[in-house]
Recover the amino acids of this structure.
């Protein structure tokens, strides 16, 4: 059984040619490696953003406490 036999029904439901279907629905190994690298970078950026947000949140909380204390 070829890959075409496996995906024939789905391909027909999309109305695409085999070339279009292959390009849209299949991902090549080298593209996966690039995507994994991008995901790792985005994860690092997200963690840094979360850490910055948490730090700023604490600083605002402390500032509010100090303002209430001064009053």
């Amino acid at each position: 059984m070829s890959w075409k036999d496996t995906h024939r029904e789905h391909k027909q439901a999309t109305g695409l040619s085999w070339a279009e279907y292959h390009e849209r629905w299949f991902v090549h190994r080298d593209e996966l490696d690039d995507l994994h690298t991008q995901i790792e970078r985005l994860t690092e950026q997200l963690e840094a953003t979360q850490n910055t947000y948490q730090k700023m949140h604490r600083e605002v909380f402390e500032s509010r406490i100090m303002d209430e204390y001064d009053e």
